[in-house]
Design a protein that fits this description.
This protein is α+β, with helices and mostly antiparallel strands. It contains eight helices and seven strands. β5 and β6 form a beta hairpin. α1 runs antiparallel to α8, α2 packs antiparallel against α3 and α3 crosses α4.
């Protein structure tokens, strides 16, 4: 039978009530924070005063998918090992090995950006060269939360993502903060690092099952008031709790 048309993403409470609730949480925590979520094929909803920033290690996800795509769905055991370290432990050297396997820096950037486009992100630009010394080129991509949520919502529906999603479900225990604390999180990846001012941005992307059994893509981020990584983790834990309490229905299980 033909599938029913996709329905707009419903919210567990009115948009105004959710915005008020999120603003209260943000004011209590201090700093700057934001959250976006999307049902596959539908526009993302967003909250907060932080709309995005440097992607940091969340960008390892499209890099890994690009490697699987290049291998026609069958990456070598060596590449799979590098992908595993890059995703489950956020190992930068392993991620750079996966990136280098895509070809020249220009080719690697183009293939990674093509993955984003297939995932519904039509704006994010992946740099081919390091924008800051000592950091990966792809990790310095400027990735908005709405684009990231749209991409996350697409992951279960894209080709060549099953191995990557499996790895996103095996994040090492020391990095299972934020959305990693929730039992209904199917897959996730965090990213974090200091800005040029030394203050941290801490962020995550996730595929989440809601209370009604449907699925959304989610992106959340915080620039904590004290600029520390530890407070950023605490802020993301609080954001995850807000998601669990407030976003309970209205996703989709369709592709």
């Amino acid at each position: 039978a033909p599938s029913a048309p996709a329905q707009p993403l419903a919210q567990s409470a009115s948009a105004a009530a959710l915005a008020t609730s999120f603003a209260a949480l943000s004011a209590r925590l201090g700093g700057s924070m934001g959250l976006a979520y999307a049902s596959f094929g539908q526009p993302a909803k967003s909250f907060g005063d932080l709309s995005g920033g440097v992607g940091w290690s969340t960008m390892k996800i499209p890099v890994a998918i690009a490697a699987v795509t290049q291998a026609n769905g069958h990456p070598s055991q060596a590449t799979l090992g590098q992908m595993s370290l890059a995703i489950t432990e956020s190992d930068n050297n392993a991620a750079m090995a996966v990136w280098s396997g895509l070809g020249s820096p220009t080719e690697a950037a183009a293939q990674t950006q093509a993955v984003l486009r297939l995932g519904g992100d039509i704006t994010t630009v992946v740099p081919s060269q390091a924008l800051r010394p000592g950091y990966t080129p792809f990790g310095q991509s400027n990735w908005s939360l709405t684009d990231q949520a749209t991409f996350a919502a697409s992951l279960p529906c894209m080709a060549n993502t099953s191995q990557v999603l499996d790895l996103m479900g095996q994040i090492t225990s020391s990095q299972r903060w934020g959305m990693g604390t929730l039992a209904n999180t199917v897959a996730f990846k965090g990213g974090w690092g200091p800005g040029t001012d030394g203050a941290y941005l801490v962020r995550q992307m996730a595929v989440v099952h809601l209370g009604d059994g449907t699925r959304i893509g989610l992106a959340l981020a915080a620039r904590p008031a004290d600029g520390s990584f530890e407070t950023g983790i605490s802020d993301l834990n609080a954001l995850a709790g807000w998601v669990a309490a407030n976003i309970r229905s209205g996703g989709t299980n369709r592709c």
